[in-house]
Structure formats: C-alpha cells, structure tokens
Amino acid sequence: MAAVGNGTAVTHFILLGLTNRMDLQGLLFGSFLLIYTMTLMGNLGMMALIHADPHLHTPMYFFLSTLSFVDICYSSVVTPRLLADFLTTDKSISYTGCVAQMAFFLLHGTAECLLLATMAYDRFVAICRPLLYHTLMSRGMCIRLVAVAYTLSMANSAVQTSNVFRLPFCGPNHINHYFCDIPPLLQLSTGDTLVADILVFLVSVVVVLSSFLLTLTSYTLIVFTICHIPSAMGRHKAFSTCASHLTVITIFYSTVIFMYIRPESGQASNMDKVVSVFYAIIIPLLNPVIYTLRNRDFKRALGKTLRRVKAALSWHRGPFPELIQLI
C-alpha cells in the first residue's frame, strides 16, 4: 500500500452488510435470492414478451422494455454481491471494485429516475394530447429520449464517483453498508468532505428533484384530464392505474431523496441500509408487476403466448403415443 499524507492508502474496503446477526444470515439469503430471481424472471419475461408481440411495439412498451433492462442491471450491481456476503466471512471488496460498483449503481439509478420521468411524459402526451401523440412520440424521438437519459446518467455517474474517490482514504476501511454507496464512503474519508457533500446535494437535487417534479407534473395533468372523462367506470379504471404507478414512484423517489437530498447526507447510519433496500432491490421487483398488472394489452399478449406454448407442448406430446404403438 502506498503512503498518502500521514497515513496509508486504502487498497480494499470491508462491507459490514445488512446485519451482523449470524442467526439471520440464512433467512436473509433465502429472501433476497427469491427477490432477485423474481426480479430477473419478471423483467426478462417482460422484455421477451414485448419483443415477441408486434402489438406491443409502441412507445409505452418500448420504454417499459428499457426500464426492465435498467432494473436488471440496477439490481445486479448490488444483489449478487449481497447474496455472496451472506455465505462468506470475507466481505472485502477491492478499491477498484468499489469504484466500479458505485459507478454502475449511479449510472443505472440515474437512468431509472430519468426513465420514470420519460414514461410519465409519454403517458401525459397519450392521455392529454392524443392527436399529437404519434408525432411527438415517434420511434426516433423515443430512441433519442432514451439516449439522452443514458448520456445524462453516465455524466452523473462520472461526476459523483470522481467526487467521492478524489478524497483520501487512509484510515478505517469498514463500510457500514452492503454496497459502495456515497454516504458511507464519505464518512470514511480522512479528508475534508464539505465540498463533496455540497456537490452530492446539488447534483442530486438537479437530477432527482427535476425528474421527480416532471413525473409529478405529468401525473397531475393526467389526473385533471381523467376528471373530465364522462364514464364513471373509465375514471375509476384510470385512477386505479395511475394510483399503482404513483405508489411505486413515491416509494422510489422518497427513499432516494432521504438518502441523497438531506442535511449531512454523508453521515451513514443503519437506517440508510434499510432504506436503500427499497430503491435498490424492491423497486426493480415491483416495476414489472405494477406497470402490467392493470394493462389489458399486456395481459392479452401474455395469454396468447401461454396458449401458444401450451399448444406447442401438446404437439410435442402428441406423436409419442402413436410412435410407441407403431413400435
């Protein structure tokens, strides 16, 4: 390890994990393994179904497919490492590995924020400006919106990661978290973190609050439009759909704001670990369920695919009895 200032540069960190209670390790491993498996199956299944059904090749499902991809990456940055730490006593992560984990986590976390805002805007145009929908949300525009979201996400990830790791780490290396996140890393730095704390706050305000306000504004305008729907059943259905979407959005943004947009955001605590579970692990599981639960087109496509699979299995089973009789 190279000497830095009055101390020695840290070459690896120790992740303390969710809890140090050994009696809970097996239960937590099983629970998070189930969550991660369902997250992968739900999001991969959504992507496959959207790709396979031509009726789902619309802007809304294009964004949903992209969100599923982001959720898979987002969850995979954190959960496999967490699962491994439940099974081993060596919870060390290299300095380079910590940098990479933070960079990819911020990349896909920011993309999640921006995509949720983009999807809210897409629904606003579809419901409030239906005559202009195909013009405003053309395929080229959808691709450009996703490209802009990822470009901004990469920029935010680069700024935030370099902001943290430009600081000296020459003392304690035990991270009070289950992955390399900004608040617990700032707490370990042996340098002055005032400028870093301010930058984290300002950038988070710009990225998180701007996307949250755009999302909230879009859904507010959608609700006003829904209120003018003459059919009571139509209003109820639209409100219930928006309510389910807003539930996920509220959980995601409230936990992210708690972590990154608050006084002394660099002071990590055990509560931070619990809060981070919601936006890093639970939300990627909920998204494919919430965004398709009340969607007739998606359920119709799923039913068609299941019938096709059932028919294919029946066809494969059919010839074998006859073949046996011939033999």
From TrEMBL:
Asked whether the keyword Cell membrane is assigned, the reply is: yes
Residues in domain G-protein coupled receptors family 1 profile?
42-291
Tagged with keyword Transmembrane helix: yes
Alphabetical GO CC annotations of the entry are:
plasma membrane
Where does the record place it?
Cell membrane; Membrane
TM regions (residue ranges): 27-49, 61-79, 99-121, 142-159, 198-226, 238-261, 273-293
Look up and give the membrane topology term: Multi-pass membrane protein
User: Pfam families given for it?
Assistant: 7tm_4
The record, for CDD domains, names: 7tmA_OR5-like
Alphabetized UniProt keyword annotations: Cell membrane, G-protein coupled receptor, Membrane, Olfaction, Receptor, Sensory transduction, Transducer, Transmembrane, Transmembrane helix
Gene Ontology MF, one: olfactory receptor activity
- What does the sequence similarity comment in the record state about its family? Belongs to the G-protein coupled receptor 1 family.
User: What is the role of the protein in this entry?
Assistant: Odorant receptor.
**What is the protein name stated in its UniProt record?**
Olfactory receptor
